[in-house]
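okkk here we go again. third time trying to get the magnesium ion bound version out, last two times i messed up the smiles copy paste (missing a bracket lol). double checked this time i swear
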Amino acid sequence: MIKVLNARFLTSSPSLEKSDFYSGSEIAFLGRSNVGKSSFINSLVNQKNLAKSSSTPGKTKLINFFEANFKDDDENLYNLILVDLPGFGYAKVAKSTHKIWQSALDEFIKKRNSIRLFIHLRDSRQFDMEIDKNVDLYIKSFLRSDQRLINFYTKSDKLNQSQKAKVLNFDKDAKFVSTLKNEGIDEARELIIKGVFGRV
Ligand SMILES: Nc1nc2c(ncn2[C@@H]2O[C@H](COP(=O)(O)OP(=O)(O)OP(=O)(O)O)[C@@H](O)[C@H]2O)c(=O)[nH]1
Ligand SMILES: [Mg+2]
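finally!!
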């Protein structure tokens, strides 16, 4: 089992150009606005409000960097940089502003070479949305051989068994997470460490 040792906020940045570089391996969290990216980061590091979450879509407007340290059962230490990104598809601002945000986000995602792992979060209640298919194709269009992509299906507390079966029918490897019920979070930490370091 992976234990969280500590986590802290590093900085926020509006763009790739203004982002600092860190020695830890980077993990980028992406997905639709309001899908639960910031909440998931908080759960992964066992903190309530490190990454700011909100029921209003469009809460995360900048690229936010967090550092977290983990330890496995054999006392191996893992240092990670978690990157909380603004959501895709939120357009409740002027179109021109939205375009600038999305192009800054696009540049960061494609050109931030230190990203080792992309985590695409999908809402488990709306698992087959067009925008998620596009996000998946988008990431795969530039994913390098030394980068990984993992999908998680969020808010699984809202699903009953038969609804979960439908998601599994759609994606037989679907991994459910609920920050509300702490479901799938231990497994998610293991998968993330494995995805970045190739072992647990
Ligand atoms: N029921 C339930 N609600 C959740 C869960 N995770 C997040 N939420 C709620 O979903 C809303 C959005 O969560 P955020 O973590 O802010 O989502 P986000 O993807 O970071 O959103 P943006 O920053 O706007 O892109 C909040 O009201 C959360 O409380 C979950 O596992 N279960
Ligand atoms: Mg957020």
